[in-house]
Amino acid sequence: MAWRAAIMGATGAVGQEFLKVLQERRFPLASLKLLASGRSAGKKLPFAGEELPVEELTASSFRGVELVLASAGGSISKKFAPAAVAAGAVVVDNTSAFRMVDGVPLVVPEVNPQDIKLHKGIIANPNCSTIVMNVPVWPLHKAVAIRRIVVSTYQAVSGAGAWGMWELTEQMKAFAAGEPIRKNKFPHPIVDNIFSHNSAIADNGYNEEENKMVNETRKIFHCAELLVTATCVRVPVMRAHSEAINLQFTAPVSEQQAREILSEAAGVRIVDDRASNHFPMPLEASGQDDVLVGRIRQDISQPDGCGIDMFVCGDQIRKGAALNAVQIAEML
Amino acid sequence: MAWRAAIMGATGAVGQEFLKVLQERRFPLASLKLLASGRSAGKKLPFAGEELPVEELTASSFRGVELVLASAGGSISKKFAPAAVAAGAVVVDNTSAFRMVDGVPLVVPEVNPQDIKLHKGIIANPNCSTIVMNVPVWPLHKAVAIRRIVVSTYQAVSGAGAWGMWELTEQMKAFAAGEPIRKNKFPHPIVDNIFSHNSAIADNGYNEEENKMVNETRKIFHCAELLVTATCVRVPVMRAHSEAINLQFTAPVSEQQAREILSEAAGVRIVDDRASNHFPMPLEASGQDDVLVGRIRQDISQPDGCGIDMFVCGDQIRKGAALNAVQIAEML
Fold first, then answer.
1. How large is the average pLDDT for residues B168-178?
2. Beta A307-314 vs A241-249: how paired, if at all?
3. CB A281 to CB B193 under 8 A?
4. Which position among A9, B147, B244, B276 has the lowest Cβ density within 10 Å, counted as fewest Cβ atoms?
5. What average pLDDT score do residues B288-308 get?
6. What is the pLDDT of residue A64?
7. Which of B277, B283, B298 sits opposite A196 (nearest CB)?
8. For chain B, first and last CA: distance in Å?
9. In the beta sheet, which residues pair with residue B93?
10. Residue A87: left if φ>0, alpha if ψ -120 to 50, beta else—which one?
11. Using a CB-CB distance cutoff of 8 angstroms, which residues of chain B are in contact with residue A238?
12. For chain B, how big is the Rg over CA atoms in Å?
């Protein structure tokens, strides 16, 4: 079977990665439509040796389309995904629009592939930092139930879109030249700086990114009682998110046990060389399918032996977005 | 009273900051000797309108010296601090050489100033990330005892010394020019990257920086049973360390209560504007005496109300090193 597919938001950072991942994985395509806003219409994008035209996204774009990979922003998905479903397509949506909607599966293929078949036209792809955390935490949780997660993120600018990488690059050039740093879309300078994630703060004092990590993880793990607190921070890194993860299990878990579970886990690669101080880094996670995991150690602040600390790093455009969505499509 | 003082390691990043802080605070000096390695001897450094010569540090450098501010590395302190004490001086040591030695006070002036008077010639200045954490955490602990701290750091390259700033600057220039990134002293590229703190990993799986945060905090707080876990990470920021701090208290603490305590705490400035997404950032903490504190919120992963999350940022050359040492000297 080959799909008649369309990409919504084809010119964005994730849209570009969709094209790359579909080619690399030889995803079975009968046809591929590239959809974007009117101002990108007419552009051509290379795909599998051809130049595909970008078409303007409209409600009638989905005639004959069976699969939509969507990453054009939440409001665009809210507006157009129902039209795509009405036209008979399955939408794998990378935006936050439908993630927490009851009845819409929210899927990390390594965690809850069984939820895919419950879809009613839309399958949601989780937030990038949620995916990067869930891939290594799930196999541990499956072995011994986790009570509580404390996570701090070090998030790349590409999480904000292609413009984030442009803005950091421009600011690095200005810094190197000794010129004033000009802000553009980020609320604060990102070169030579870090700042609390640039999403709105909700009533509970957490920003949207943090609340996504909390609520999406509970939904994906089917574990409403899982306790999670997150602090999300933007760092001057182009690509790949890092996370310091502290786990409190409901029973003792040894460092050795955690290491064994992770060494056999799908989508995980251990990078944990204490002698040479070599651990997961964004530079090495970029462009990789796997989430890198290291600094695996017994948490000395949990004397009951129920604690594990680790540091993980994953390409948030790839596994955190495009790859995860294509993996879902492959399972359809 | 005016001190006959000497700076050990006058040409380093912290040594330079000593000169700045002594001038700004009009520290009472009868004389000031600048000591450094032989290869810096003969240099002149500006101080209070004069040019002071740098002298080579030897065992006989301390004749007539009453106060030594030391920041020339642990092995130098181990070698020369006893000579300084024998010559009658008090040494405020910014290295790790004596911090955990029984009988040597380890002091954050906002936390345990009473320990200063117990000195026998040497007073240790804590590690920079310890100080940045202790200043805001102590007033909370004093109000309601803390059971456990989970901290993740975002540490500037200046923590490694002046060469760290040089290395990041060179790598930023190369990145901006599209040239290959050359490593020098850091084990990994630091531009467009983050990495686990470049200190050795101890037997317990924690690196030296993390073990310092754990053990020094217990000593400074006089609380051997305090549980602390830390993950220390280097980020491409010139100056000022940031830390995501999760606190578990022994009794409920409300967000409002935490905010009130912090608003009256010495050495703390609250930067916590949710509406404009303005929180502590290295760019704004650099050059400041206060530790900036924000993202103060009730930890939703502790349903008993005993948890507070916050994000802090402090200039680690200043409050994390030079200023803290000069404050100790002022209290002598």
1. 96
2. antiparallel
3. yes
4. B276
5. 98
6. 96
7. B277
8. 11
9. B70, B124
10. alpha
11. 192
12. 20
Minimum distance, in Å, between the CA of residue B196 and any CA atom of chain A:
7
Q: Does A154 contact chain B (CB < 8 Å)?
A: yes
pLDDT (0 to 100) of residue A60? 93
- Best A201, A254, A276 member to test B by mutation, with max B CBs in 10 Å, is A201
**CA nearest B231: which of A150, A60, A330?**
A150
Burial class (CB in 10 A: 0-12, 13-18, 19+), B320: buried
CA distance B70 to B7: 6
Backbone dihedral region for residue A73 (phi beyond 0: left; psi -120 to 50: alpha; all else: beta): left
What type of residue sits at position A174? A
Q: Could A187 and B276 be called an inter-chain contact, meaning their C-beta atoms sit closer than 8 Å?
A: yes
Place of tokens 């413009």: A163
Q: Work out the percent of chain A whose per-residue pLDDT is above 70.
A: 100
Sheet holding A3-8, edge to edge: A44-47, A50-56, A29-36, A3-8, A67-70, A90-93, A122-124
What tokens were used for B150? Answer: 């989970």
Residue the block writes with tokens 């609390």: A196
Cα(B132)–Cα(B69) distance, integer angstroms: 20
Contact B303 A191 (CB under 8 A): no
pLDDT at B162 over 90: no
pTM as predicted: 0.97
**Two tokens at B279?**
């929180």
Identity of the amino acid at B183:
K
Q: B162-176 vs A162-176: helix axis angle to the nearest 10?
A: 120
What mean pLDDT, rounded, does chain A reach? 97
The reply to whether B223 touches chain A by the CB within 8 Å rule is no
Residue A257 touches partner B, C-beta closer than 8 Å: no
Q: Closest Cα partner for A245 from A147, A143, A150?
A: A150
In this complex, which of A169, A195, A204 lies closest to B279 when CB atoms are compared? A195
What Rg value do the Cα atoms of chain A yield, rounded?
A: 20
